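Supplementary Data S3. Sequence and structure tokens for construct A.
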Amino acid sequence: MRQSALVALLWLVPAVAQELVNPQATNQVFGAIWVKGVKITSDALIGSCFQGYGLPGCSNGNGTSQHYGISNQLVPGRSYCLQCCSNPTPTGNDETWDLACPLTLLQQSVIINDISKEYVFARRRNLTDTGLVVCQWPKRTKGLYLVGYTLELVVTEYSASSGAVFWVGVDACSVTAIESTALPTTFTESIRMVSVRPAYTPSPYWYFALGGFLIATLFVAYVGYRGYMRNEHCVNCASKLVFFHSLCLLCILCGCRLRAPPPKVFCIEAYEAELAARASDASSVSSDA
């Protein structure tokens, strides 16, 4: 039993030793099928794309998901790399990979009686999160061969720095064994990913900006109402855009005052001087005549 577990562990190591990627700019799901009781850390999973059992040559049997781009990730002779999600929507995504992977005799001998495994994923709620999400095999049925599994993941797509930084975190997982009395020649991996996009929370400064915009809009509407509906005018320049105390904003700024000058100060003296000048001119004309 110990020897078979060791063989399984050594066979699974290449599946975890995936080519490292930039963990701050990837849509890969980091995780592995691991031997229960053998310690693994989140740091060891970062950069390791989930590949199931690491079987090469898998094909996608879900015809409705071909246009999602899943098949583009299934390179002949290489293991697949689980990525989320190829057809995102504003509210999230629900994507299923129905993979059929051919088995060699060696792979068959290791997998069909596989037990004591757990599925381990990097939680990644943020880029420094060291938490793990673990789901374990349900109790296997004695006398049946393991011919596949159904894995369901609840994932969240994160982004920062205006999209320059993005990553995928796993919130929950569950796995069900697919068993049969017949020896399998292909191994079935059905992986469903349900992505949930975090609700958008606007900055509190947007509320201040919106409040200021609404106040400015209401004030402009009020100024327009006074000038064009009530026909009020600036007492200084006759503008209809009366801003405050019968003055327009331009006259307030240019005159450095908030109130219109009293009529006597503002216009009566000039008017009386003009009348006196006219009377003087009229007297001069009369005396000349």
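Construct B, processed identically:
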Amino acid sequence: MGLPVYKEMAESTKITLNCVVKENPIEGQFRIKIDGNDFICDLREAIRENQRGTFEYGSLGIKLWSVDIDLGNNRAVLEQLQNADSTVESVTGGIRIMEGFRKIRLHFNNPDPNKIHLVVQAVQNWCDVCDKGSASKKTLNKHKESNTHDKMLDRERKAKNPPSDPGSDVEGFHDYDEGNGDNSISLTSNDITAFNDEIENLGPGRL
């Protein structure tokens, strides 16, 4: 008599996730039924098995975002999501799921069946600068030629190489004006050249 109870308890941890593929969110919709106590890495593998024709590069090449999108009246959102220059975060407010050894139920606890829960994207055509993917290598190359990519690349370069203090000169040298507290006088390269010429004109024995 106890066995059916244990079986029912085991099945109660199963959840169903409504998923869309980032590159084709209108037609690329599918469902995954999985144990909420499984790990995110198990979810990636289940998605790869479910969509073998779409995700050919292994489960580690799948990026996931948890989202909260109504199943009905969402075409405008999905069309915007499909745009190669749009990110999941900017369109849906979704949260990137990264930790493979985190339990699924910590991200999806009693998911609403009338919602889209998960955006899925393969990473074989991924732009690390913009942290976004493209549907094909051709689309990725086109994205890398766009103003959006150039702006992100410029921002990344500035973050890695902040400008030096505008009040300092190259190599840390400073000019001192006449009348400074230490009575130092600044010399330009022309001043030094003129001084050397004067020394040469004096001739030997006159210094």
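The two ends are 117 Å apart (CA to CA). Residues 147-160 form the longest helix (14 residues).
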